[in-house]
Amino acid sequence: MTLTERTAQIRExxxxxxxxxxxxxxxxxxxxxxxxxHTDYNQGYVLTMTIDRNTIIAAQPRQDHQVSIGSMNVxxxxxxxxxDLRCDPALPWTNxxxxxxxxxxAAGYTLNGxxxxxxSTIPFSSGxxxxxxxxxxxxxxxxxxxxxxxxxxRWRCYARKPKMNLSA
Length: 168
What we know:
Blueprint: H1 3-18, E1 24-33, E2 48-61, E3 66-71, E4 77-81, H2 94-106, E5 114-120, H3 130-146, H4 152-159
Parallel strand pairs: 3-5
Antiparallel strand pairs: 1-2, 2-5, 3-4
């Protein structure tokens, strides 16, 4: 499937879900570690490389603090408030979006709500970082909608913070 065909399918599904056209598009690639799996966490040498599979989020900004998110890859849609980011055991894939929102808000960034639709060509549970691609795409979407910038060196600081308990 070409990128043109893929975006047409995403637009069509987005229109069915939200009766509107997406106005913001973000994407993040999958990746593979060519040497040593996850040794980078322990200061080891790793050669990470992006692959030709990616995750796309098509979105439309909202004027409230609500997020409505759906996926073309897995069942379920979820609407939630950016003021209530507790984990959702019924739709665990949405917790990746909520986790990014929680970290960004804890760092002092103002987030805006959106209607969004995710489509990924990265096989799940394959070691190609499908969840990381969803997190990066989510962060890029919040950044784009918020109109703020972040020094890339700050991302490293947030990655090393203790895990947040979002299960409240």
